[in-house]
Amino acid sequence: MENKRLAYSYVRMSTEKQVKGDSLRRQVEWSKSYALRSDLDLQEQTYNDIGISAWKGKNRTDGALGLFIERVKDGIIPANSYLLVENLDRLSRMTPLEALDLFKDLLKSGITVVARGEWDDEEVYTWETINRSASQLQATISVMLRANRESERKSQLIRAAFDGKREKSQKGIKTNHAPPSWITPTKVAKGEYVYALNEKADTIRWIFEQSANGVGFDKIARMLNEKAIPTLRPSKRGWWYTNVAKIVENRSAIGEYQSLSEEKGKYLPKGDPIAGFYPAVVSNDLWLRAQKSTHKNRKGGRAGTRFSNLFDGLACCAHCQSPMYMQNNSRSGHQFQYLVCSANWRKLKSLDGRPICQHGTFRFRYKQAEQLVLDNVDEFGVSDQLRIKRASDEVLQADEAIADLTMKLADINRALRRFAQTFQEVDENELPDLVAVMKQREIEKKNTQIKLENFEHERAVAVARQAQLDPATAIRALRLEWEAADNDDATRYGLRVRCNRAMNEFIDFISFDSNEQTYTVVLFGGLRAYRFKNQALVRGPISQRPHVIDLSLYVHAFAEQWTGDYVKKLRDFKQKLST
Fold first, then answer.
1. 277: closest CA among 302, 300, 251, 303?
2. Nearest by Cα to 470 from 373, 377, 375
3. Taking Cα atoms as reference points, which of 281, 292, 280 lies closest to residue 211?
4. Rounded to whole angstroms, how far apart are CA atoms 412 and 396?
5. Residue 341: beta bridge partners?
């Protein structure tokens, strides 16, 4: 009996309000109906982009559609599967050529796209049909053009509305329906509000007073967590120094309002700030003293240029599973780095007032931990389970992408040369438009070059994998390179970032136990663990063989239960570390 081809439903809505209407139900029911009529196996997992716009392609770069495409490329989703959408404009509202590139990626990977039209007609798109049928190609481009123009028009209307609000604000009319969290708006007329300070104002004043007294932002955040004072917006992560810094630097605290305008995806100030727009929560004098006060830990440590923490995204507290926090201490002219439990260090408390972590109190010497883990990557890498699969396919995919980008780059360069020749022939009135087009081409050229470099790097990695190089071997090579490039911060930073990515390929997490003063490297999908003992009062390089914990016997005895539970817990844990 032949297996049915798989089908997946893709739903995109620009706002969450649309979910409450009939649109979502209509799309889901149509997907089920089409799969039944076409003898397809509709998968339970639906790829939803709710509240994500397709105008700038965010559903491709940051949304579920991008995830779907990546899973097709990785072979997780079979290449002959179906993607069911209510309309082609659900996929993209970018410019027609950009939308066509996205559509080509889907079809070229082997996916069949089925779109439901405005009159309930159903159009089936494949790589073969779109190349064979001129009418289908023309209709597709027409849909993409219409979708882009609709989004552009909506954007213009929104910008006009914002400009109108901005003009009213300049006249003293209170138009902002979303003021800072310590201010409550009350609607008095259409588009007009009155403002009053709420219960959070006392917290804001206290923060300014502490800052004016010279207390660092990091210390203020820990004091707020220790007092179990809720954040301005509900959050389980508690207060961070960045939260405090944004409050202290916010001129809304003295009543100012700065209107913003969206430019190329970024909100930038537009017009002069309006004094006295909001009720002031602090005086001008207190605000100025809070700005001028200096403290060595005022804004915390910056990320730096050397990518200090190789365990980023991997290190966690064994007692509460919170991420480990990198702490820098200067003593006797020397800089020391420690890993501490972030929940314990920041004094986080649960809703009932109890500390989230009481046991994660030990400070682990970071350089010692990094050295011991890196010294033993060869042992981590001896297992056949680390051999990379599908290396040949990865090389072929990279070659194809490199070829496409190389041709695109050549086209852009030819266009730029033509523009340069045209400069001598055009009238002066046409020069500004020509310069604008050339600038756009230069941006395209730069972006294409970056993509080309990335694919060339991915191809080099794939070739290394094809030659039976495992991540552990790559880590050893990267380590030698960055140690040789000690005075070149840019090169060293890039090498350590690549090392961190390689470690994430086969290390599940590194658990730091304050009670035992040990850290355990868990890898192979939970099959094996290597435990190291923290060594105190040791100067210079150290040597230590880890205690090996083989979990494979337990895994084989309870294979299905272990795999399911472990994968779920690991996925949840990784998500927690990333946030």
1. 251
2. 377
3. 292
4. 24
5. 324
Percentages (nearest 5) of helix, strand, coil residues in the chain = 50, 15, 35
42-56, 107-121, 189-203, 531-545: which is most confident = 189-203
Let me know: does 154 contact 146? Beta carbons within 8 Å.
no
User: E strands, 348-417, where?
Assistant: 364-365
Work out the number of other CB atoms within 10 angstroms of the CB of residue 345: 21
d(CA 95, CA 98): 5
Helix/strand number for the chain, H first, E second: 19, 18
The whole-angstrom separation of Cα 164 and Cα 210 is 39
Nearest CA among 128, 125, 130, 122 for reference residue 34: 122
> How deeply is 256 buried, as exposed, middle or buried, from its count of CB atoms within 10 A (0-12, 13-18, 19+)?
middle
Q: Are 72 and 107 in contact (CB under 8 A)?
A: no
**33 burial level (CB within 10 Å; 0-12, 13-18, 19+):** middle
Mean pLDDT of 420-434: 67
**38 — alpha (psi -120 to 50), left (phi > 0) or beta?**
alpha
Residue 492: CB atoms within 10 A of its CB come to 19
- pLDDT tens by residue, 22-36: 667 788 888 899 999
Rounded CA separation 488/306 (Å):
9
Query: What pTM, to 2 d.p., does this model score?
Result: 0.47
- β-strands 547-550, 260-263 pairing: unpaired
* CB distance 47 to 13 below 8 Å: no
Give me the amino acid identity at 273: P
- Taking the C-alpha atoms of residue 380 and residue 524, their distance in angstroms, rounded to an integer, is 9
Structure tokens at 171: 């006249």
Dihedral (CA of 369, 361, 215, 222) sign: positive
d(CA 214, CA 216): 6
* Residue 544 DSSP SS3: coil
With CA atoms as reference, report the closest residue to 543 among 553, 532, 554, 557: 532
Structure tokens at 346: 């920041």
∠346-350-356 over CA atoms, to 5°?
55
* Residue 385: pLDDT band with limits 50, 70, 90: very low
DSSP state of 182: T
pLDDT digits (tens, 9 = 90+) for 169-213: 777 788 888 899 999 999 888 888 899 999 999 999 999 988 888
Amino acid at site 454: N
- The length of the chain is 579
Give the Å distances, CA to CA, from 228 to 237, 343, 344, 356, 446: 12, 13, 13, 11, 48
d(CA 576, CA 579): 5
Identify the residue whose tokens are 């439903």. Answer: 9
Position 207 scores a pLDDT of 93
Closest listed residue to residue 145, CA positions, set 106, 198, 205, 100: 100
- The H or E element that residue 327 is part of is strand 324-331
Rounded distance, CA 215 to CA 218, Å? 8
Who's near 341: CB < 8 A, 6+ residues apart? 317, 319, 320, 322, 324, 325, 357, 360, 361, 512, 514
Asked if 320 and 476 count as a contact pair (C-beta separation under 8 A), the reply is no
